[in-house]
Amino acid sequence: MKTDHAIYNARELGIPKMLLLGIQHTFAMFGATVLVPIITGLNVSTTLLFAGIGTLLFHLITKGKVPAFLGSSFAFLGGYSMVAPLIDGKPNVEQLPYACGGVVAAGLTYIILAGLIKGFGVKKVMRFFPPVVTGPIIISIGLILAPTAVQNASTDWLLAFVALSVIVVCNIWGKGMVKIIPILLGIVVSYAVAILLGRVDFATVKQAEVFAMAPITIAKFSISAMFTIMPIALATMMEHVGDIAAISATTGKNYIADPGLHRTMLGDGLATSLAGMFGAPANTTYGENTGVLALSKVYDPKVMEIAACFAILLSFIPKFGEMIRTIPTAIIGGVSFILYGMISAIGVRNVVENKVDFTQSRNLIIAAIIMVSAIGFNGMGGLTFVITDQISISLSGLAIAAILGIVLNAVLPGNTYEFHETPVEEIPDSNFRLK
Fold first, then answer.
1. pLDDT for the residue numbered 422
2. What CA–CA distance (Å, rounded) separates 213 from 217?
3. Would you call 72 helix, strand, or coil by DSSP?
4. Total-model pTM
5. Which helix (H) or strand (E) segment is 283 a member of?
6. pLDDT tens readout for residues 24-54
C-alpha cells in the first residue's frame, strides 16, 4: 500500500486500511521476532505476547510520538548460547531463567543510560561508547555465534541451503514486501521443502490447544549470567540510536530531540526488562518496520500499536506456537548462517560509516584487544573470580571485551569522538540490522 504523500494521521485512510497497515507491520516483524525463541528455546507465544506489550509500553513512554515496533533482539543470542545452550536441540530449561535474568539486567542498563543522558546530556554519555568500542563488540558477537550456525546447518545441508538461497535472492532481487521480509520467506520456502521431503513431525501440533494463555517463566538471577549478558546492551544501545535516527530520517521528524533519546531508550529498556522477567527475549526497535514506513509513507504511530495488538492476539494460539517449533534445526542453521555473518558485517559497517581512523595506534589497540578478548576468553569459558567460598563472579569473553574496551577508550589519549544528535538524511538498508 503506497501513497503519493506522507500520512501522519492514518485515520484519514479509514479503519479497514489502518488494520491492513497494522497487519503488514505484523508480517514485517514476524519472521525475525519468532526466530529468536526458535534458536534459544524460549516460547514463541510468550515472545509474541511481550513483543506486543513491550511495543505498547514503548509508545506510552514516548508519548505516542515514535512509529516504532519492538521485537526480539538478535544481539542477545550470544548471551543465551553462553548461559543456556540448547541440549540436543532442546531448550535448556534449567538455565534459561538465568539467561532471562541477565536480559532483565541488560534492560536496567538501558534505563541507567537513559537517566545519565537526561542528567548529563547525550554527547557526554556517548563519549564513553564510541564506534571504536561498539563496532568491534558487534563484530565479536557474530564471530562467537558462527560455529553454532554451521553446526545447526550441518544436520541437513539441503534444507539449510534452500533457506540461505531464498534469503539471498529475496534480499538482492526482491521488490516491495519481498525485499522487506526475506528471513520470513526463507523459513517458509525451506519449511515447505522439509514438509514435502517428510522431515517435519506434527505430533506436538496436534496435541496443542487452539486457544490458551502464553506460558510464563519467571526470571532467576545469578551474577555470572548478568555479567555475561549485560555488556551486550552496550552494543545494542548504539543500534537503538541508529534505529531512532533512521525512523527520524524516514518520517522527517527528529525523534532524538522530541520526545528525546532518553525517552526512547527508557522505553526500550523497560520493555526488555519486562520481557526478560517473564520468560521472553530482549526487545528492541525493529529496522524491518522502518522499511515498511518508507514503503507505505504512513507514519502514524497508531499503526504500530495496531500491529502490537495483533502480536498479542497471536500469542493466545498455542497450536500456532507449536507449528513454529516444528521447523527443522537445519533451516535455523541456514538462516543463522547469513544472520550471524550479517551481525559481524554490521559491526564493520559501524566503524566504516563513522570513519574510525585505524591509522591511529589507540584505535587499533582498542579494537584488537576487544576482539581477541571476546573470542579468546569465550573459547576457554570466560574467567571466574573467587571472592569467598560462597561467592564467585564469572565473566564471559564478551563481558571482558566490553569492560576492557570501555576502560581503554577512557584512559588512552586521543578520544575525539563526538555524538551528533541530528539524524542523517539517508535511510539505511534495514533488511538486516543487529536487533
1. 59
2. 12
3. strand
4. 0.72
5. strand 283-285
6. 788 767 767 888 898 888 998 999 999 999 9
